[in-house]
Design goal:
Length: about 230
Amino acid sequence: MTAVPEEPAWRQRAVERSTRAAKLRAEQRVQRFLDSAQELIVEKGTTDFTVQEVVDRSKQSLRSFYQHFDGKHELLLALFEDALSMGAAKVREAAATESDPLQRLRIAVETLYEQSHPSPGVQRPLFNDFALQLLVKHPEQVATAHIPLLTVFTEIIEQAAEAGLISGGKPRRQAALVMQTVMFASQAHGVPADSHAHPVTAEEVWQFCLGGISGVPATAGRSASA
């Protein structure tokens, strides 16, 4: 049986170098499309722009755009996923400043609350418009986009459970419930439209979440986190 000659090392290096160069060029083209779309969103205060506007601003071709994206929806989805990924990185970075797992979870909750809370006069069309449409029409894409954030909260909850600071359970499901509670409370301001009460604060949301995942009243959890 004749042995198959091994590919020369120089050929492997040449192919790898060519592949790396092609990948870098593709990444740069994609980033220009993303940057252009983001600029349009900021300028218009809405996601109501056309693919042609993105192409013109990026100084690339329509053909190149469709080589990387199926259409405008996929472009907006990429921006949405990027924003959530960066948000998850900031939550992880903020939580890492604490050595105690329960304090890390508290910082993570408060950081996510502040990220999700609407700022007066600040438009966030990618979240206020596109994300809502996405939730109705493509909930599975919303779930996928939140995976980086879900991973961060799952890890922190696992660490708190391992330290005996909260009861063990299903950390990933607990993380999902905590995230949904925090994000909804921050968006809804925590009070009915006709109420004169003060909005729910990040501290109140934290105490509520702590009571849920620890299985003890929030007042007891307050002493545990002190």
